[in-house]
Each structure stands twice: as C-alpha cells, then as structure tokens.
Amino acid sequence: MNFAEAFSWINIRFLLDGLLITVEVALLSILFSFVIGSILGLIRYLKIPVVSKIFGLIIDLIRNLPLLLIIFFAYFALPQIGIRFDIFWSAVAAMTIFESAMLSEIIRAGLNSVPKGQTEAGLSTGLSYAQTLRYIIIPQAFKAMVPPILSQFISLIKDTSLATIISLPELTHNARIIYGQNTTYVIPMFIAMALLYFCICFALSRVVKRLKLGF
User: Fold this and answer.
1) How many domains does the chain have?
2) CA–CA separation, 69 vs 113, rounded Å?
3) Measured distance between the N- and C-terminal CA atoms of the chain, rounded to whole angstroms
4) Do residues 114 and 139 touch, judged by C-beta distance below 8 A?
5) How far, in Å, CA of 177 to CA of 184, rounded?
6) What is the pLDDT of residues 151-188, one digit of tens each?
7) Which residues form the ABC transmembrane type-1 domain (predicted)?
8) Above 80 in pLDDT, residue 43?
9) Residue 143: which CATH number?
10) 48: left (phi over 0), alpha (psi -120 to 50) or beta
11) CA distances from 98 to 65, 91, 144, 150, 170 (A)
12) What integer is the mean pLDDT of 52-73?
C-alpha cells in the first residue's frame, strides 16, 4: 500500500474532477428540488380539493421508493417514453424528483407547525389569505423549516454517490477507477473519499447547528 503513489497529482486531480461533478449535481438538485418542493408543500398545505390528494399520493409513492430505483428510472426508463437525458442530467433529474418529495413534506410540516390562531389573527386585521400566508405564516414556518431542509441537503450530497451506478463521473466513480487500476490504492482512495465528503458535509452541518442556535 503506497500512499505516495496513490496520492499522486494525477490521481488527486482526477478525484477533484469527480468532486466538482458531485458538487454540481448536488447544487442543481438542491436548487430545482427546493423550488418544486416548496410549490408541492404549499399545495398540500392549502388542501386544494383533488389536486392536493393527487400530489399527496405521488409524493408518498416517491418517498417510499429507493433513490437508486429513481436513478435507474431517469436514465433507463424515461428514454423509452421519449424523454432523453445524458448521464449528468439523468442524475440531476433523479435527485430532484426524490428530494422534491422529501422537501415538500418538510415544508408542509413547517407550515402546519404555525398555530391556526395566527391565520385567524391575520385575517381579522383585514389581510387577505395570501397576505396572511406571506407576511405571517411563512416567516414563522421558515424558522422551523430551515434546519431540516439543510439536513436534507447534506443527505443529498452523500446520495450523489449512488449515481456511480450509471457511470456518472462523480467522486465515488473516479475513486473506483483509480483503485480499479491498482488494488493497493483501495484504502488510500477510501480515505480520500471519506475526507472530501466529510469536509463538505461537516461544513454544512455547522451551518445547520448555527441556524438552530439562532432560531
């Protein structure tokens, strides 16, 4: 086991290239899933007849499926119905679908955590329901939502490693290529992966902790 050779500049650069892909997939998935999840969570909170129930069934279905299955679906099944993505965007699509379902429930729970009396108080002052939601309910719910949302984003970053199954050149995939060429690099590569994932996730976890203390 030669750490010096395993951590050559070529290998380190290859790992960093994979880390960049990991971060890009994670950031895009976080952006898209936050927007979609917020919309879905709001729809479920408003209990729109029929629509909320339909979305609820879809969300429950997605939340109870393995992310790996959704990745396979995005990469192998969607092309069968004419929707084609390359490996990168298949990973983003799968992560977005899964995380949107998870975030929608976090957002709905956050909105439901605000006492109903707050809504009644807002309406009694002459505010419309939309204004009450915007100026009273959402700001209060936001405090309850932020820590679990950020925790979910941390999980998403780690879940990007599952995309190695469709050969997305992310961190785990590139590490596998390196130690696949020389089996003595297995432990060094696992150490490198652990450190890189830890640095990103630990930094975000500190943000979550600070936000919890602040709220």
Assistant:
1) 1
2) 32
3) 48
4) no
5) 13
6) 888 899 999 999 999 989 999 999 999 998 888 889 99
7) 19-208
8) yes
9) 1.10.3720.10
10) beta
11) 9, 11, 21, 15, 19
12) 93
Q: In the numeric block, which tokens belong to residue 78? A: 């969607």
Question: What are 209-215's contacts with CB under 8 Å, separation 24+?
Answer: 211/146, 211/147, 211/150, 212/147, 215/143, 215/144, 215/146, 215/147
Band (pLDDT 50/70/90 cuts) for residue 211 is low
* Neighbour count for residue 118 (Cβ, 10 Å): 14
Which domain, by its residues, includes 71? Answer: 3-214
Please say whether the beta carbons of 117 and 54 come within 8 A.
Answer: no
Please enumerate in sequence order all residues whose Cβ is within 8 A of that of 90, keeping only pairs 6 or more positions apart, or say none.
Answer: 71, 74, 75, 78, 166, 168
Query: Quick check: helix, strand or coil at residue 6?
Result: helix
pLDDT at 120: 83
